[in-house]
Amino acid sequence: MSRAEAISDLRGHLDTLVAAVRGAISSLNSILLDQQRSGAYPYTPDPYRNTYIADALTQLEEKIPALSALENDILPIVTSIHKQCNSIAPIHHLPDEILVDIFHAIPSKPGYLRIANSILVSHVCERWRDLALGTGTLWSAIEFLDNQPYPIAKMCVSRSMGCGMDVVLKSSKGTTTSHNRHTIDLISAATIALPAADRWRELTLECTVPSEATQIITQFLAECQPDPPQLRSLCLYAYMHAVYIDADLEKALFSLSASTALTKLHFKRVRPPRTTSLFANLTQLILEDIIDFSTPVSRLRAILAACTQLHVLQLDKVCLGNEHISGSSDILFILPALVELSIDSCSEFVQKLITDYLITPALRTLRVGSNESAATDKSMTYFFERNNRVQTLGLRFISPRSHDVISALSGLSDVHSLTIGSNMHPAAYPDTTFLGGLLHSMPKLTELRVEGRVTLLELNAMKRFIETRVGVPGIAPLHELYFAFSLAHLSQQERERTWTWFEQKIGSGELVFGEVD
Description:
The chain is of the alpha/beta class. The chain has helices at about 5-35, 50-90, 95-105, 115-120, 125-135, 150-160, 180-195, 210-225, 245-260, 295-305, 350-355, 375-385, 405-410, 430-435, 455-470, 490-505; strands at about 140-145, 165-170, 200-205, 235-240, 265-270, 285-295, 310-320, 335, 340-345, 360, 365-370, 390-395, 415-420, 445-455, 480-485, 510-515.
């Protein structure tokens, strides 16, 4: 046995010894307390009435001071050994700033508070605890999800020191249907974090009625007085059903826009407000699950026209009224700084607003998904032709089989990453028609992802696509390939042959070959 192994064994034995001593003292104290109680049960076997056991317990009772003294003597020694062993461990040679970066990089587990990892690392050793407690950014998230962790929230306010805070208030997990019950819980939770309102950087509100958001935003602005708020991100969600912004919430949002320059807005199941000043400084806008045919699509255009600094725009399941959009050139509008655009499962009028009338000279990342139709094919063709500097392209839920669309896609010469299909739906078009039209296009393409089940026919089309491009001058080879394919109908030999083929073609690149039953 090596010295390191012997010391490790010794540490384990000492830990066991200390735990055993503590356990013995605890058990003896419980026995003594039980003996003092009246009303014993004479009809059950009583070990205390056994003379030999009683004598043994008496002798052990006399040893309690000695056992306590033993624990007091051993514990400092054990602590010293642990401390010295920890100090010579390789990870303890890392600088504090590297350790803090590692602490921040630990992924959060689903369903757990984000600070759970901070609590965990603060209980590893003395150095880690001192470092964790002295790093305010590790405690900068206050979350109220399916419970009300008031003590933890107060601890985060204290330990975060002067750092900006991310506050999450959700009433979505409640079991009651009473709006008053939800309102009281949400407002009470917000009260815990309001003393640090001047440090709020991100606020996520998931409410059941507009009055909840109105009251919290109003209290937040009052708490920040006289200094302007530092809030930069607002995520406003509605639980279960859509929430319409009433006059009071509209007023609160207007006051918020007049007090702080928000850079991120995320509305989910909440109709966007009329106050366009709220959008003036945004760099990121997310509109999700907003189905409101009483709101005309011109409202969305007015909002986007106000977002002159927008870098990221995500529209997911946004369905607005079927207001007619004129084809005149005066309704064209530009987002000069937009580099990333995602539009998925939106109504035809919303999609046409984006594809027909939006100018995006800086666009580099595009993710689009819609229903297949002649109208959407024509709009997408026009959009691809206008935005031919895209580098990262994702095509979901659509089947661009028309020659015009494929021709427009083939003109995207800067694309290096292409994703087709969706994890939620079968891969619709990695077939001969689609991939065959791109055999000699997208010369910089090095990453191909096919999300969703791939059939044998589509698999063969992918093989032809990859094989044709190998060795062609001016066309980069694929370095990353991801797709899911059902191999249940193939023999073991055919599975291995398929895997080997793709592995050889990708070479030293990354191949992710997901099997779907």
